[in-house]
Specification:
This protein has 355 residues and is mostly beta strands. A four-stranded antiparallel beta sheet has the order 3-2-1-30, with no helix packed on it. The chain has a four-stranded antiparallel beta sheet with strand order 4-5-8-9, with no helix packed on it. A four-stranded antiparallel beta sheet has the order 10-11-12-13, with no helix packed on it. Strand 16 and strand 17 form a beta hairpin. It holds the Pfam family Lactonase. This is Lactonase family protein. Belongs to the cycloisomerase 2 family.
Length: 355
């Protein structure tokens, strides 16, 4: 009998509404069950957790906090086998609308990107596992050709390199990936590099290939995925970009999330508008992407999705149709196949699967 898989969903809503939901996935029965719902935090639009499962970190994606500009990041202790969350620490993010949070591989740093605040902040994590006060804030400057979406910098994620020595910030407003480096002796971060994307691309999220040799960035505004070689630490070498939409599609659509399968054979990208996942096969020798198909997410505006560590299951959060849908991943083709099960959650925007 397979062990149930623990899944956490973040959603938009007021602090009085359910913002975080814990689900369990029964692999044998291919079913999702809603275990616990939590209120008390406004717009927890992105979540992460330490490897031990002691703490859940959530951003509160708001523009003001206590009358001051900016949002916050909140750390919860997970108690009673996930049936209780107790707030143990909160910190201002020093920027409006924090939309992404990530721990580095060593769990010594926690990074948050402020979408409307034109900045990224990094917090040192204490030995207890709780983040301390902000260590550094990096402010971005620049614009892009899309006047309505690129009028200012919009850092959209914060991704640590596999060795934890570099921090990559895809900035949708600047069409750049800003790169910051860690001086381990001084425990300080500093600007390292800046990588240009195509004008108007709008880079949003980024994932490394399990081999560590490639990275993939999803571009929200022009619906593409850009491949990078990662042969030198801290240095992204831009390669080709491929579309996430079928050639016959003529409507409006914006990309959201990108995921690499645990075995590195496939890359997945979500389309909001086309309401689908684009699936690409990965060339084992070069990391190059080849289109493998499109699958409907069976809902509207799939903002986020995730794949279980065993690579067998995919869960897609459809923000505008209030659903989280379960798919079984075909191991041969990589295509997600509807598993006949979905669960109702109001405005789901983040899927986090406990490692």
């Amino acid at each position: 009998m397979a062990k149930a898989i623990e899944i956490w969903i973040g959603a938009y809503g007021s602090s009085e509404e359910v913002g975080v939901t814990r689900l369990s996935l029964d692999p044998d029965a291919a079913t999702l069950t809603k275990e616990t719902e939590f209120t008390g935090i406004q717009n927890p639009s992105f979540l992460t957790m330490d490897k031990s499962g002691r703490y859940l970190h959530a951003v509160s994606e708001v523009s003001t906090l206590g009358g001051q500009p900016g949002g916050e990041v909140v750390t919860f202790a997970i108690e009673e086998e996930g049936t209780s969350l107790q707030e143990v620490m909160s910190h201002p993010t020093l920027g409006a609308d924090p939309c992404f949070v990530m721990l580095d591989p060593s769990e010594r740093w926690l990074a948050v990107s402020n979408y409307s605040g034109s900045s990224v902040v990094v917090y040192p994590v204490e030995p207890s596992g709780v983040p301390g006060a902000v260590s550094v804030r990096f402010r971005h400057s620049g614009t892009g050709p899309n006047a309505s979406r690129q009028e200012a910098p919009h850092p959209h994620s914060a991704v640590f390199s596999p060795d934890g020595q570099f921090l990559f910030i895809p900035d949708l407003g600047m069409d750049k990936i800003m790169v910051y480096a860690l001086d381990s002796d001084k425990r300080e971060w500093a600007v390292h590099d800046a990588v240009n994307l195509a004008p108007g691309a709008g880079p949003r999220h980024m994932k490394f290939h399990p081999s560590g040799k490639y990275a993939y960035v999803i571009n929200e505004l022009d619906s593409t995925v850009t491949r990078f070689d990662y042969a030198q630490p801290g240095k992204l070498e831009k390669q080709e970009s491929v579309t996430t939409l079928p050639s016959t599609f003529e409507g409006e659509s914006w990309c959201a999330e990108i995921v690499v399968s645990p075995d590195g054979r496939f890359v997945y990208a979500s389309n909001r508008g086309h309401d689908s996942l684009a699936i690409f096969s990965v060339d084992a020798d070069t990391g190059e992407l080849r289109g493998a198909g499109f699958v409907s997410t069976r809902g509207k505006y799939p903002r986020n999705f995730a794949i279980t560590p065993d690579g067998q299951w995919l869960l897609a959060a459809n923000q505008h149709s209030d659903s989280v849908v379960l798919f079984r991943v075909d191991s041969a083709t990589g295509l997600p196949v509807y598993a006949g099960n979905e669960i109702a959650i109001n405005k789901p925007v983040c899927v986090y699967i406990r490692p």
